[in-house]
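User: For a reading group we're discussing how well predicted structures match intuition. Take Peptidase. Before you show the prediction, I'll give you the sequence so everyone sees exactly what went in.
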Amino acid sequence: MTQAYSIGTPGQSWGDKEKALWRQNQQIKRSYHDEVVTKINALSSDFEVVQYGKLDYFEGQYPLFAFKSQPWCDAKPTVLVTGGVHGYETSGVQGALRFAATQAKQYAKHFNLLIAPCVSPWGYETINRWNPLALDPNRSFYPNSPAGESAALMSLVANSTGTLTAHIDLHETTETDNSEFRPALAARDGTEHSNWDIPDGFYLVGDSENPCDAMQQAIIEAVAKVTHIAPADEQGRLIGAPTSQFGVINYPTKSLGLCTGFSDARFNTTTEVYPDSPQVDAENCILAQVEAVTSALDFILNQLKAGDE
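Assistant: Thanks. Here is the predicted 3D structure of Peptidase, as structure tokens, for the group to look at:
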């Protein structure tokens, strides 16, 4: 069923007036500084903390931070972990921070780790998918991006490393996708979208041009020990996309401007946690994100070792 939206005229894309009205309706609901920046600062003795940009919005200034593991060594493979590309997806942010706090040190022996835990801090504070300009950062990873969040992350990666071995992007799929964000998208673009069934459980989104099937399977098997994996619907789909294997769908990440598409990493995946499930709580969602990162790194490390033998 399609849900109408309170802003705009059906069938007509938004202009500046509608975007301004949408922005006025957004409210700060939590603190990026208290919930994210303080945790980053607490880990400054274990990592090099890099401020890789600053978003200057009417609502305030948002410094952008990333961790770099130490010592950084050009001979090591480099892995990018990103969270909060969609700021409202809480366990992506907190999962990246928890990985940094509890697991990253052991993996830094084998990898250069670049961790950007909250790519969209305004979205985190307002619990939003878009930035204040009504742009989706996770559809904006391409040259000359109009989204400052996306442009800053791409610049960070370009200035930090040559080639990424892996990119793990932490996300959620929530009930608000149907109640707020998809209706808003349809209104903004002057189109009509039907709601999709929200998968109850964890799943992965791979790149259709580089699906990394074996790695995705390894992650699903590991995460299944922490939380439940989303079953496909009656058509064998998750959020409208056909499954490539249990718990996995593939998207053309580069053409869609998705975060994992810009990095050209050999191994890449996007996690999707369902925080609204009655079977989970916030802590379980964070643990699922951490398990996804560590199981991916374990798989990649084994693949790299096998290649050296």
